């Protein structure tokens, strides 16, 4: 069984990452693209015979969603636009994989998720998944599998150092877009990029329910002009078990040693996108290098396609996980606005 799929959105990420992901997924067949303009829609896989739908064409979103040979859509749009398209696609009975974050803020996300649970799921026709490619990094999956060897978790650390200046930041072409240069979503790149690293942190800690985040305190700032409104976060977090952690995120740093560290009573695990180092009882036992392919987006889309066919949906792509990721970012920003006042989580039980 092959699932007919369409793209809603035709930006660089769709072309450079989603398209190779669908092409590498035997369970999916790309049928069509929708965008604001025919020109934009037709730029995706120009060498393929794809049907193009657009706001400036006779055939638009309604016509795409009415097609019976399209059972699923991948939605990748500016953050504040996504929710309305998620609603439209699910209402039309299409399975949805929407890009992170789940929504622009907790209010929109919880309303959308409540509607999904009360209106869409009972009908049994369509499912909603939220993309988070970091949960598909081989290094993070390998590291998570080692945590049981550490005993009780005591500390954790997330370090994200990026230099967002043109010519320094490999993903700068994605951030030249107007909606990222002048964002109308909270936190700017702190939400857009930071949510990946929160998701990875939660994924690592999520091997144990007692290590879910319960409290967040943060200071935020803006130290460069490239990405408003803020580009830096320094946060302290606590888990239900009492473990303490830090989250240091900067889009304007000359440092490069980004990654995640988890410290337990018997040792620690250090991980980045390519390397995992496990140290137990003072002995470094393992170093695993597992390069990620296309930022693991190919793995992510393959997993989604397989889930659509089997009906066994991926826990890593549940919208409840994406809600919990968004909550941590939003509470960091709120705490920063209040000069570090601690914030208590509500949506970490997923």
TrEMBL record:
<dbReference type="InterPro" id="IPR036291">
    <property type="entry name" value="NAD(P)-bd_dom_sf"/>
</dbReference>
<dbReference type="Pfam" id="PF22725">
    <property type="entry name" value="GFO_IDH_MocA_C3"/>
</dbReference>
<dbReference type="GO" id="GO:0005737">
    <property type="term" value="C:cytoplasm"/>
</dbReference>
<protein>
    <submittedName>
        <fullName>Glucose-fructose oxidoreductase</fullName>
    </submittedName>
</protein>
<feature type="domain" description="Gfo/Idh/MocA-like oxidoreductase N-terminal">
    <location>
        <begin position="3"/>
        <end position="114"/>
    </location>
</feature>
<dbReference type="InterPro" id="IPR055170">
    <property type="entry name" value="GFO_IDH_MocA-like_dom"/>
</dbReference>
<dbReference type="Pfam" id="PF01408">
    <property type="entry name" value="GFO_IDH_MocA"/>
</dbReference>
<dbReference type="GO" id="GO:0016491">
    <property type="term" value="F:oxidoreductase activity"/>
</dbReference>
<dbReference type="GO" id="GO:0006740">
    <property type="term" value="P:NADPH regeneration"/>
</dbReference>
<comment type="similarity">
    <text>Belongs to the Gfo/Idh/MocA family.</text>
</comment>
<dbReference type="InterPro" id="IPR000683">
    <property type="entry name" value="Gfo/Idh/MocA-like_OxRdtase_N"/>
</dbReference>
<feature type="domain" description="GFO/IDH/MocA-like oxidoreductase">
    <location>
        <begin position="148"/>
        <end position="269"/>
    </location>
</feature>
<dbReference type="GO" id="GO:0000166">
    <property type="term" value="F:nucleotide binding"/>
</dbReference>
């Amino acid at each position: 069984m092959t699932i007919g799929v369409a793209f809603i959105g035709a930006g660089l990420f769709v072309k450079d990452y989603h398209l190779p992901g669908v092409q590498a997924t035997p369970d999916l067949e790309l049928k069509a693209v929708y965008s604001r303009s025919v020109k934009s829609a037709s730029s995706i896989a120009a060498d393929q015979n794809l049907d193009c739908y657009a706001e400036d064409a006779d055939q638009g979103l309604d016509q795409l969603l009415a097609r019976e040979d399209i059972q699923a859509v991948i939605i990748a749009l500016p953050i504040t636009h996504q929710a309305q398209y998620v609603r439209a696609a699910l209402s039309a009975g299409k399975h949805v994989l929407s890009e992170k974050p789940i929504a622009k803020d907790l209010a929109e996300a919880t309303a959308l998720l409540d509607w999904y649970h009360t209106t869409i799921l009972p009908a049994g026709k369509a499912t909603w998944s939220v993309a988070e490619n970091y949960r598909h990094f081989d290094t993070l999956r390998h590291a998570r599998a080692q945590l049981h060897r550490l005993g009780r978790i005591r500390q954790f650390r997330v370090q994200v150092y990026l230099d967002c200046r043109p010519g320094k930041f490999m993903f700068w072409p994605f951030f030249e877009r107007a909606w990222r240069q002048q964002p109308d979503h909270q936190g700017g790149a702190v939400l857009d990029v930071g949510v990946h690293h929160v998701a990875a942190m939660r994924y690592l800690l999520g091997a144990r329910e007692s290590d879910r985040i319960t409290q967040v305190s943060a200071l935020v700032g803006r130290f460069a002009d490239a990405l408003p409104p803020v580009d830096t976060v320094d946060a302290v977090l606590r888990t239900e078990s009492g473990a303490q952690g830090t989250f240091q995120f900067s889009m304007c740093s000359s440092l490069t040693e980004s990654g995640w560290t988890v410290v337990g009573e018997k040792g620690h695990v250090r991980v980045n996108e390519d390397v995992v180092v496990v140290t137990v009882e003072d002995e470094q036992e393992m170093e695993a290098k597992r390069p990620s392919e296309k930022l693991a987006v190919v793995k992510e889309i393959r997993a989604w396609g397989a889930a659509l066919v089997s009906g066994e949906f991926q826990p890593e792509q549940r919208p409840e996980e994406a809600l919990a990721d968004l909550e941590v970012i939003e509470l960091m920003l709120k705490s920063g606005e209040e000069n570090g006042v601690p914030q208590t989580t509500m949506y970490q039980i997923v």
